[in-house]
Amino acid sequence: MNMAIVFAAITVLATTFGGFIALKSSDRFHLILGLSAGLLLGLVGFDLLPEVFRLNKSLWLGVPAVSVAILIGFLSLHIIEGAFGSHEPAESDYGHDHEHHNIAGAVGAVAMGGHVFLDGVGLGVAFHVSNALGFAVFLAVLVHAFSDGLNTVSLMVKSGHWTSRSYALLGVDAVARIGGATFGTYLALSQSLMSIYLALFSGFVIYLATSHILPEAHSRHSSRWTFGATVLGVAMMWVIVAALG
Question: Vertex 20, ends 154 and 179: CA angle to 5°?
Fold first, then answer.
């Protein structure tokens, strides 16, 4: 079986484990989230961005094409999640006006499944470039999968919507990520198009780390330990990327 598909299947376990941690722990996973955000930011800064700028040096209207793709990736996910409300912090204040039930509904499931599918595609495309880049992207997807499981379960428990449909939502996560990896594996792209997709993926990752994971980590426990966990995550990814290189 293709490596990208195997690694995508492993991330399903990370999602399940994240959900288990959310059910069993009270308020200690903010440090894990801080570490997760640091790992994602380190992956983008030390591996993905240098790779996409190396692969594609073309310009769009006078600026690097991959720079435009990075911003499109960030803004598109920001707009989609803003429209569907599919990723509000689990520590948010739940009032009657927020209509948090949409996370368990069809729209929330589709929105969540969409960006998880793009995770999988990024994994498949990265292995087209090199095994080293594929493994590095796998680490990012693994971290995101864990965070998704943790936050999705935590959100639904706190909003009072943990039902059998909640398991279905986690199932959407698993199927979408494996499906995305399968699609990305057999997607025939030129080197320049692969770099554009990986640049889009970088924008997704930056958005998830800065607009989703870090706000959750700091929502009730903003402390030097949370900041330290984020810095540690960046440092760990520095070491990992250097070792892979």
Answer: 90
